[in-house]
């Protein structure tokens, strides 16, 4: 138990201290290049493309999972301390919160004046055309992304890692890398215009079902407003994704603000678009929700360890005497 807690604590500390590594040195970007190579015409028919996409969805995420699990397994064979540190690095590389919050805060602050910088910066958060968005619409885009990426960028990989870490650090690292691989496939291939990405999008929908709803609950707790989660039910299914609407709608209700992607969805439509103060509060709420998610992960470690009667290991004894 203490080993798993120490590993999660080290991973969170690395994120708080350093944020995300440079893109060129980030393993997720390396996997992205592999996905880019798979994004091609495998068949002359749409059905053939979809069938090829099934193979990609099944096999591609196993690559980062095998690498992560293998590296942690090999490191553990050298010494349990080394294995624990490497597992923490894997979790650090498959989750992110500091960079998300910093960029969201930057975009929100940039809307208080000339919008050119905000329109440039928001491209790091959303893919929509920002050239004609107003200051309030730019804040909405940033706030929506912060809520959605709480689930994609933190909860989705952290919670399964926490469940498996007391049992096997290599398995925990593998599942975190697998989840990140699934998310990356969806973000790159999961568009209606790409039949090869249909299976990846469906797999991501399945994987994100619980993380999205847990993230929504964490946002409601962070806002000390459980009614936000109840109110969000009215709009959670409005976005095309069956999952992203939950954390976004919950945050909209917690802020008492309208969040919208023009021409696609509107959440909490009777409210006004977020003000500067709303945007700043959103960053704080998502940050607190991330902290709550980490507490949930730690609780899962304790529950799994207690249920299996597991004890601490030499790694925990080094870091947590």
TrEMBL record:
A single GO BP: cobalamin biosynthetic process
Location(s), subcellular: Cell membrane
TM annotation in the entry: 51-74, 81-101, 289-310
Superkingdom classification of source: Archaea
InterPro entries found in the cross-reference section: Cobalamin_biosynth_CobD/CbiB (IPR004485)
Chief location: membrane
GO cellular component: plasma membrane
Key words of the record: Cell membrane, Cobalamin biosynthesis, Membrane, Transmembrane, Transmembrane helix
Recorded GO MF terms: ABC-type vitamin B12 transporter activity
Pathway note: Cofactor biosynthesis; adenosylcobalamin biosynthesis
Membrane topology field: Multi-pass membrane protein
Membership in a protein family: Belongs to the CobD/CbiB family.
Function: Converts cobyric acid to cobinamide by the addition of aminopropanol on the F carboxylic group.
NCBIfam families cross-referenced by the UniProt entry: cobal_cbiB
PANTHER family assigned to the protein according to its UniProt record, in alphabetical order: COBALAMIN BIOSYNTHESIS PROTEIN CBIB
Protein name in the entry: Probable cobalamin biosynthesis protein CobD
Organism in which the protein naturally occurs: Haloarchaeobius amylolyticus
Gene name tied to this protein: cbiB
């Amino acid at each position: 138990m203490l080993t798993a807690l120490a590993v999660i604590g080290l991973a969170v500390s690395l994120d708080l201290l350093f944020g995300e590594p440079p893109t060129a040195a980030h393993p997720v970007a390396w996997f992205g290049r592999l996905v880019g190579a798979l994004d091609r015409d495998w068949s002359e028919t749409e059905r053939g493309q979809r069938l090829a996409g099934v193979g990609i969805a099944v096999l591609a995420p196993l690559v980062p999972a095998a690498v992560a699990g293998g590296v942690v397994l090999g490191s553990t064979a050298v010494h349990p301390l080394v294995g624990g540190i490497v597992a923490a690095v894997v979790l650090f590389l498959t989750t992110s919160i500091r960079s998300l919050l910093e960029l969201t805060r930057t975009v929100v602050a940039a809307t208080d004046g000339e919008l050119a910088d905000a329109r440039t910066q928001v491209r790091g958060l959303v893919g929509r055309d920002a050239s004609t968005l107003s200051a309030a619409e730019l804040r909405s885009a940033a706030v929506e992304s912060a809520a959605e990426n709480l689930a994609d960028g933190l909860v989705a990989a952290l919670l399964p890692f926490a469940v498996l870490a007391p049992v096997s650090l290599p398995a925990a690292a593998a599942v975190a890398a697998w989840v990140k691989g699934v998310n990356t496939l969806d973000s790159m291939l999961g568009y209606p215009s790409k039949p090869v990405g249909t299976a990846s999008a469906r797999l991501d929908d399945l994987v994100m079902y619980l993380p999205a709803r847990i993230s929504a609950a964490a946002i409601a707790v962070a806002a000390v407003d459980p009614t936000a989660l109840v109110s969000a039910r009215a709009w959670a299914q409005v976005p095309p994704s069956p999952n992203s609407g939950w954390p976004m709608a919950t945050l909209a209700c917690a802020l008492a603000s309208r969040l919208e992607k023009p021409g696609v969805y509107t959440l909490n439509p009777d409210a006004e678009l977020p003000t500067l103060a709303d945007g700043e509060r959103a960053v704080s709420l998502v940050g607190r929700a991330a902290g709550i998610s980490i507490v949930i992960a730690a609780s899962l470690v304790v529950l799994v360890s207690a249920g299996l009667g597991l004890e601490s290991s030499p790694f925990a004894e080094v870091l947590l005497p």
